[in-house]
Design brief:
Blueprint (H helix, E strand, L loop, with lengths): L5 H24 L8 H13 L4 E4 L3 E7 L6 E7 L31 H17 L7 E7 L8 H11 L3 E12 L3 E2 L3 E15 L3 E2 L9 H11 L3 H5 L6 E10 L5 E2 L2 E10 L2 H22 L2 E10 L2 E3 L1 H15 L10 E4 L3 H4 L4 E9 L20 H18 L4
Parallel strand pairs: 3-4, 3-5, 5-15, 7-14
Antiparallel strand pairs: 1-2, 2-4, 6-15, 7-11, 7-12, 7-13, 8-10, 9-11
Length: 401
């Protein structure tokens, strides 16, 4: 394989930077929520087709495209998520007016997925241009519905189906300053078990609770019984979080409802801890339902394993990124209790998930993810592109042509 220097990668990234920003701005102004990314998917497929790549739909709006160099080597997956959130964007960040806001009421990119997509499309353009200097195969994966973990079951099968040797993804991170990248080994984002129970009771008049079976009171007692679940199931020093996000039932002050709903999440880094918490959750629900003579008529689950970085790939990424961007860029960073569908991939193939700093106090960038004031520092986009290029070139070059 012809040597691809750090200088060449930097030059290519700078050359494509206007494209990166143009795509980011277009996506930010035209967000689409999970499962509805039709225009976003059409745009992505159009851009990939212009590079001469065939595309394959994943679910409805996800997209896979293959760059096959025609030379033997390893197979790498590069992934970006594409969906936005049902959040009304604030016109201001932490210090003033934003330069760019969503054009769709009630929907915005408040987690940086527009940046992820713009970054991967740029990486795809550059790597296609370097095809004759590369070995092996590169899959570009644009994932739909990450915020709802829609593709997690598909993701889990992808490493075997595509014959992957490794996978790489980034997340622009609001708690890290722009100019820094964290690529540490081990667990980086928590696993999640999301649940939404629907409880069936028997409605009635509020004056005669003896003639009813109140599912709302049952849900309240379950919520109270689950308080402290993390403390009961996780050893001291092990991170785990239990949160209730919804307790819903009834419409009239003097009417006992037929149904009630209870929903929340369990987040963990160690699978054994997660299993204990989930088991305790279900046991608690079953015990209180029996006591209240109510039953479950529906259970919606969202599940994703922890995102875990392979130790060898973490070292490779550290060396590759330091060579391209300088050693000062690579930094330590804490685990993130947020969750990611990429965990379904890291569980099944050695993977690398990089946090790319996107905060800048002077520009007002640093509001939390999913916050209406969230804004990433667009100077981070160049680092995101270069991190992906550096990793891909170093990984594919290990085997040689």
């Amino acid at each position: 394989m012809t040597d691809i220097s750090a200088g060449l990668l930097v030059a290519k990234a700078k050359e494509q930077l206007p494209y990166t920003h143009k795509v980011y701005e277009m996506l930010h102004q035209n967000p689409e929520p999970s499962g509805e990314e039709r225009q976003t998917a059409a745009f992505i497929r159009q851009e990939l087709a212009a590079l001469g790549l065939d595309t394959t739909p994943v679910l409805d709006n996800g997209t896979l495209a293959l760059l096959d160099t025609g030379r033997p080597g390893k197979t790498l997956l590069l992934r970006a998520d594409i969906d936005a959130l049902p959040v009304q964007e604030d016109e201001c960040n932490l210090s003033g007016k934003k330069p760019l806001v969503s054009g769709k009421p009630g929907v915005c990119h408040a987690c940086g997925h527009d940046g992820h997509t713009a970054t991967l499309l740029t990486v795809a353009r550059i790597l296609c241009g370097l095809k004759e200097q590369l070995c092996g195969k590169i899959w570009f994966y644009f994932e739909q519905g990450e915020e709802r973990l829609m593709a997690s079951p598909v993701n889990a099968k992808m490493p075997q189906q595509l014959g992957l040797d490794a996978a790489y993804a980034i997340h622009y991170y609001a708690d890290m300053p722009c100019g820094r990248i964290s690529i540490e080994k081990g667990p980086r984002m928590s696993g999640v078990y999301g649940f939404e129970y629907t409880f069936q009771g028997k409605g009635g008049h509020s004056s005669r609770p003896d003639q009813a079976k109140n599912p709302l009171m049952c849900a309240v007692k379950i919520a109270q019984a689950l308080d402290g679940l993390s403390m009961l199931c996780a050893p001291p020093g092990e991170f785990a979080v239990f949160s209730l996000g919804m307790l819903d039932g009834g419409a009239q002050v003097n009417v006992i409802p037929d149904t009630a709903r209870l929903a929340g999440t369990i987040r963990y880094f160690e699978p054994d801890v997660g299993r204990r918490m989930v088991d305790r959750l279900h046991e608690t629900v079953e015990a209180h339902l029996a006591a209240a003579d109510c039953r479950v008529t529906g259970l919606v689950e969202m599940i994703a394993p922890p995102v875990v970085n392979d130790a060898g790939l973490s070292q490779l990424a550290s060396e590759a990124i330091a060579q391209v961007l300088g050693p000062d860029v690579v930094t330590a960073g804490p685990r993130w209790m947020g969750s990611e569908s990429f965990g379904s991939i890291t569980e099944n193939v050695p993977s690398m998930f990089a946090f790319v700093g996107a905060a800048n106090e002077q520009k007002g960038c640093g509001a939390a993810h999913h916050n209406p004031r969230f804004q990433l520092d667009t100077d981070a986009l160049e680092l995101g592109v270069l991190s992906g290029l550096a990793f891909a070139v170093r990984f594919l070059g290990q085997q040689g042509c």
